[in-house]
Amino acid sequence: MADLKALYEAILNGDAKIAHSLTEQALQDGADPITLVDEFMIPAMNEVGRRFESNEYFVPELLISARAMKGALELVRPLLLARGAKPLGKVAVGTVKGDLHDIGKNLVAALLEGGGFEVIDLGVNVSPEKFIAAVNEKGAHIVALSALLTTTMPAMKTTIEALKQAGVREKVKVLIGGAPITQKYAEEIGADGYAENAVGAVGAARESLGLGAK
Amino acid sequence: MHPVIQQLVARGPVVTDGAWGTELQARGLPVGEFPDAWNLTHPDRVADVAAAYVAAGSDVILTNTFGANRIRLAENGLAERVGEINQRGVEISRTAAGSKVAVFGAMGPTGKLLLSGEVSADDLQAAFAEQARALVDAGADALVIETMSDLEEAKLAVASAQTTGLPIVACMVFDSGANQDRTMMGATPEQVADALTAAGADVIGANCGQGIAGFAAICRRLTAATARPVWIKANAGLPELVNGRAIYRTRPEDFARHVPELIRAGASFIGGCCGTNPAFVRAIVQAARDHTTSSHHEGDR
Questions:
Q1: Per-residue pLDDT tens for B33-90?
Q2: Nearest Cβ partner of A98 from B32, B239, B240?
Q3: Cβ atoms B157, B163 nearer than 8 A
Q4: Domain count, chain A
Q5: Would the pTM of this model clear 0.80, i.e. be above it?
Q6: Which terminus in chain B has less CB density within 10 A, N or C?
């Protein structure tokens, strides 16, 4: 039997190779995929998030752990689906129109993938129309809007209005984030959720779909 | 020490300039539009910013070329105009600077994260080398690599700029961690000073960040960790959005109050970042002068 505590450690330390091979071996040995995810992988990512929020981890550690998690999850996901487990949901992420910054958006995408969401990355300078298309054509359950600049924040409001105009606002949850964004701003423009950082984005995504914390 | 830098710092604290982006916005640059393109389309307004800093008493002014590397220009459909935008940027600043004020060519980050794999070290190095070459060919006196949040990217930029033989200022943003004394990637002032000194930067510093109050502590730590002169360019606090416009709350006199402490902390170059303007530069010049005078008097006693 593979050492599952080592799987936890590998994700915590961002060692994608070890996380991958331990997961593979554990599955071969007949480990229960749900146990792997719920008792080792998700707790590891939760610890990564805790370390980030208490300033023990910084962006590099966050990124490599999310990557290790994603790799391990990819092995487990088909087994979960075969058992009838529903995927968590699809999130379309993008930096709003007029804003070309993608580092924050990419971190959120990596963490959401690590958290078990399917991510559709729409890139930067994303028009409201593209967000609407992600809902209509790709079935996104959540759109996550990013902005780094105070000057491009207003495009979040425009995007939410466009979603309403297009008649899809009720079909999708809207999350927003980025350096200048606040909870107050999220409430002002009628977003469904806000997170202060990429770790918080996973919690906000779960919450918006009524999945509860994990 | 590089002779260009030595000559500047020999006279005491060197006052640099303030923000360009927010000043261009004050002169009509639409919010969210790419400022560097104005070197080609609105050179008169860019020249106006440069002239305002020279008139305010800057010893060094920068150039409107912060985003003029191939990677960022490509996002704005201007990839083929790297040479032109940097050249015009230096020319505009040089015309305003005359012979008494130095022109340092500004180089900002690419906005891509090396660690995420979206760009390679070679991509970054090529982009920085191209921009550095264009700034040097146009006659810049030095190069300023600024607002870096990834030490690896900053090191690559220094290595690329070094091939030009000009003095290099390299500075990073410290705005993360419990005490806001780490870069986004977690590097401490000591790690930054060590790495950038080893990479060959002639001046090392901190810019942008969280407003001026936190800069003296970071400046002290940089000064303790390197023999190179230290460069400080703080912003006017974090902006608040009021009716769709970014408002910076720090006033010039609030900013200038920190200048004596920065000088005591070892800063050789002092200026402002986002939200600062010529009024801030005038206040810094005055504060630096008052400080120098009062320390001379102390020395007389």
A1: 889 999 999 999 999 999 999 999 999 999 999 999 999 999 889 999 999 999 999 9
A2: B32
A3: no
A4: 2
A5: yes
A6: C
- What percent of chain A shows pLDDT beyond 90? 72
Is the domain of A126 the same as that of A188? yes
Maximum C-alpha span of chain A: 55
The vertex-A102 CA angle with A163 and A10, nearest 5°, equals: 110
Is there a contact between A87 and A141 (Cβ–Cβ < 8 Å)?
no
| pLDDT in the model for residue B298 | 56
Query: Beta strands B240-242 and B245-247: pairing type?
Result: antiparallel
First CA to last CA distance, chain B: 32
Q: What is the CA B19 to chain-centroid distance, rounded?
A: 9
**ipTM given for this complex:** 0.83
**Residue B264 clears pLDDT 80, i.e. is over it:** yes
Spatial distance between the Cα atoms of B187 and B181, rounded to a whole number of angstroms? 8
Nearest CB partner across the interface for B241, out of A55, A125, A180: A180
- What's the confidence (pLDDT) of residue B299? 46
Is-contact B285 B56, C-beta < 8 A? Answer: yes
Q: Which of A59, A98, A149 sits opposite B185 (nearest CB)?
A: A59
Q: Which of B287, B230, B229 is nearest to B261 (CA)?
A: B287
Do the domain assignments include residue A142? Answer: yes
Q: Are residues A113 and A183 in the same domain?
A: yes
Confidence of residue A2 (pLDDT cuts 50, 70, 90): low
- The Cα–Cα gap between B212 and B192 comes to 19
Closest-CA residue to B221 (of B177, B173, B265, B260): B265
Enumerate residues 129 to 158 of chain A having a beta carbon within 8 A of any beta carbon in chain B: 149-154
Which DSSP helix (H) or strand (E) runs through B249?
none
In this prediction, residue B265 carries a pLDDT of: 97
Q: Cβ–Cβ of A100/B177 closer than 8 Å?
A: no
Residues 73-102 (A) with a CB less than 8 A from some CB of B: 98-102
With cut-offs at 50, 70 and 90, classify the pLDDT of residue B296. Answer: low
Q: Does the pLDDT of residue B301 top 50, yes or no?
A: no
Whether B170 contacts A52, CB under 8 Å: no
Do the beta carbons of residue B136 and residue B93 sit within 8 Å?
no
**A102 and A188 housed in the same domain:** yes
Minimal CA–CA distance to A115: which of A48, A31, A52, A172?
A48
Q: What is the CATH number of domain B3-296?
A: 3.20.20.330
CA distance A90 to A197: 19
Are residues A127 and A192 both part of a single domain? Answer: yes
Average pLDDT over residues B88-117: 95
| B295: pLDDT strictly greater than 60 | yes
CA distance A184 to chain B (A): 12
Give pLDDT, residue B300: 44
**The tokens of B137 are what?**
């060919």
Q: What pLDDT is attached to residue B4?
A: 94
Per-position DSSP letters for B139-155, written without gaps between them: T-SEEEEEEE--HHHHH
